[in-house]
């Protein structure tokens, strides 16, 4: 029996929030200890190392989810594909780490050398990164529980040992542990699902597809990291700190959308391989509607409450990040549509080449705009450049994906969505007039805004709200029944 998409969505949301939200949660504490300069110093090194972890991963995570998802019920093929991808991943990791070792002296001229050494562990231990396998077999429950354990331990360690501004190296060690710890549990747990063997492997059959996907992933990563890299080169560390915290906030909000969309990936891969195209189209459309349902109110709500978010979450020293948060908030919508159109639908139908072309165009646009705008208006210029580049790639990906999904305009869905957002906006404006700025106003704004939006959309019978409410009730009923 196939696992429930709704149940997997709940588990996947928890996993994504922990994976992407962990840096944001810890930053609430760390920002007050390390201040903008310390955050900027760490962000610069993480960005440098990310280029090498991208090379080490080689596009395997997305490809692996699709491949394993298509044969998740076939133990023999599942084991063979797993073994082949693990070997490819090991080779790419070794190559990437060697290149990093050659480059580290030059990188150390701008970045903190000790931080580079600590973060390099993320490259080396990528050899044990098999998260894609667990997502391919839709084991989101295990992923969420494992990640929760590691993150909780990391937060405890951070609160215990990171107490002063010069503890940034300790923080870096704990941050890396939060990722590497997952790899350890994956390796120990993997025997339950698969058998690793080097006999009868056909590694070459994956190479072309992996490199096509890697080209698109590489282009995406380059233009998503280029902004931080160029801010680090052209601006002061505190400005990179403002931008780094702003984009982290956007990504943790976006994690809700990717968490729900991610569970559609292995299912769509399976449906397309089985030539169940009508079901494929309906499932993909449901994913798009689900993302839009959360992305639009999240973007508008964040724009309204941005003046409370930066100083409350990161400290008063991060107040200049308010304008950056407002600029980047548009990315929540853009990221959501791009993710499900490109990294879910197009990969599921073997159109990785479309993603590659779109991201190369976007990378070029981002590079040009970064050079112009960062010099002109500083770190906010990087935000504008990122929004323009992401909007470009999303437009292309949506156009390509629409060939495989029969989109029909649903007036009732959009009318109820817009109406619910209007009620949410009115509630947020009312909170601003009634309460003074600060933590209490932020908590009330987020809580009331979410509640007003969800329940008003339920009252107006928005199909996604109705579906979510039904699935939540069924989820808890099944837990109680056990």
Automatic annotation (TrEMBL):
<feature type="transmembrane region" description="Helical">
    <location>
        <begin position="86"/>
        <end position="107"/>
    </location>
</feature>
<feature type="transmembrane region" description="Helical">
    <location>
        <begin position="287"/>
        <end position="305"/>
    </location>
</feature>
<feature type="transmembrane region" description="Helical">
    <location>
        <begin position="325"/>
        <end position="348"/>
    </location>
</feature>
<dbReference type="InterPro" id="IPR002797">
    <property type="entry name" value="Polysacc_synth"/>
</dbReference>
<protein>
    <submittedName>
        <fullName>Flippase</fullName>
    </submittedName>
</protein>
<keyword id="KW-0812">Transmembrane</keyword>
<dbReference type="Pfam" id="PF01943">
    <property type="entry name" value="Polysacc_synt"/>
</dbReference>
<feature type="transmembrane region" description="Helical">
    <location>
        <begin position="441"/>
        <end position="460"/>
    </location>
</feature>
<feature type="transmembrane region" description="Helical">
    <location>
        <begin position="246"/>
        <end position="266"/>
    </location>
</feature>
<keyword id="KW-0472">Membrane</keyword>
<dbReference type="InterPro" id="IPR050833">
    <property type="entry name" value="Poly_Biosynth_Transport"/>
</dbReference>
<dbReference type="GO" id="GO:0005886">
    <property type="term" value="C:plasma membrane"/>
</dbReference>
<feature type="transmembrane region" description="Helical">
    <location>
        <begin position="383"/>
        <end position="401"/>
    </location>
</feature>
<feature type="transmembrane region" description="Helical">
    <location>
        <begin position="355"/>
        <end position="377"/>
    </location>
</feature>
<feature type="transmembrane region" description="Helical">
    <location>
        <begin position="141"/>
        <end position="162"/>
    </location>
</feature>
<feature type="transmembrane region" description="Helical">
    <location>
        <begin position="43"/>
        <end position="65"/>
    </location>
</feature>
<feature type="transmembrane region" description="Helical">
    <location>
        <begin position="210"/>
        <end position="226"/>
    </location>
</feature>
<keyword id="KW-1133">Transmembrane helix</keyword>
<feature type="transmembrane region" description="Helical">
    <location>
        <begin position="413"/>
        <end position="435"/>
    </location>
</feature>
<feature type="transmembrane region" description="Helical">
    <location>
        <begin position="168"/>
        <end position="189"/>
    </location>
</feature>
<feature type="transmembrane region" description="Helical">
    <location>
        <begin position="113"/>
        <end position="134"/>
    </location>
</feature>
<feature type="transmembrane region" description="Helical">
    <location>
        <begin position="12"/>
        <end position="31"/>
    </location>
</feature>
<keyword id="KW-1003">Cell membrane</keyword>
């Amino acid at each position: 029996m196939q696992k429930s998409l709704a149940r997997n969505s709940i588990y996947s949301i928890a996993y994504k929030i922990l994976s992407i939200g962990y840096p944001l949660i810890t930053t609430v504490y760390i920002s007050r200890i390390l201040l903008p300069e310390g955050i900027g110093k760490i962000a610069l090194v993480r960005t440098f190392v990310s280029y090498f972890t991208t090379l080490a991963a080689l596009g395997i995570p997305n490809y692996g989810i699709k491949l394993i998802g298509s044969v998740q019920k076939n133990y023999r093929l599942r084991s063979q594909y797993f073994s082949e991808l693990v070997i490819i991943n090991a080779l790419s990791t070794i190559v990437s780490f060697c290149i990093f070792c050659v480059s580290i002296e030059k990188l150390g001229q701008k970045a903190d050398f000790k931080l580079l050494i600590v973060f390099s562990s993320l490259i080396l231990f990528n050899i044990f990164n098999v998260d894609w396998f667990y997502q391919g077999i839709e084991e989101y429950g295990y992923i969420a529980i494992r990640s929760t354990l590691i993150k909780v331990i990391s937060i405890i360690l951070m609160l215990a040992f990171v107490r002063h501004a010069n503890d940034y190296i300790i923080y870096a060690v704990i941050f890396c542990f939060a990722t590497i710890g997952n790899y350890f549990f994956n390796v120990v747990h993997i025997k339950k699902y698969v058998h690793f063997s080097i006999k009868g492997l056909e590694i070459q059959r994956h190479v072309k597809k992996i490199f096509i996907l890697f080209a698109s992933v590489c282009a995406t990563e380059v233009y998503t990291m280029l902004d931080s890299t160029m801010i680090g080169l052209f601006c002061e560390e505190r400005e990179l700190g403002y931008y780094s915290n702003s984009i982290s906030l956007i990504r943790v909000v976006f994690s809700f959308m990717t968490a729900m969309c991610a569970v559609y990936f292995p299912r769509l891969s399976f449906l397309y391989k089985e030539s169940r195209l009508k079901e494929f189209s309906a499932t993909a459309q449901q994913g798009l509607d689900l993302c839009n349902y959360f992305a639009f109110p999240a973007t508008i709500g964040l724009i309204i409450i941005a003046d409370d978010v930066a100083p409350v979450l990161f400290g008063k020293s991060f107040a200049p990040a308010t304008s950056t948060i407002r600029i980047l908030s548009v990315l929540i919508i853009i990221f959501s549509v791009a993710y499900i159109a490109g990294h879910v639908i197009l990969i599921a139908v073997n159109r990785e080449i479309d993603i590659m072309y779109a991201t190369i165009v976007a990378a070029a646009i981002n590079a040009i705009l970064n050079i112009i705008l960062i010099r002109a208006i500083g770190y906010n210029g990087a935000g504008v450049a990122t929004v323009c580049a992401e909007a470009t790639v999303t437009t292309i990906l949506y156009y390509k994906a629409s060939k495989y999904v029969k989109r029909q305009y649903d007036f009732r869905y959009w009318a109820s969505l817009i109406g619910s957002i209007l009620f949410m906006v009115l509630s947020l404006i009312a909170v601003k007039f009634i309460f003074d700025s600060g933590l209490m106003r932020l908590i009330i704004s987020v809580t009331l805004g979410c509640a007003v939006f969800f329940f008003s959309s339920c009252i107006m019978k928005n199909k996604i709200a109705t579906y979510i409410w039904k699935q939540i009730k069924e989820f808890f009923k099944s837990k109680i029944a056990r």
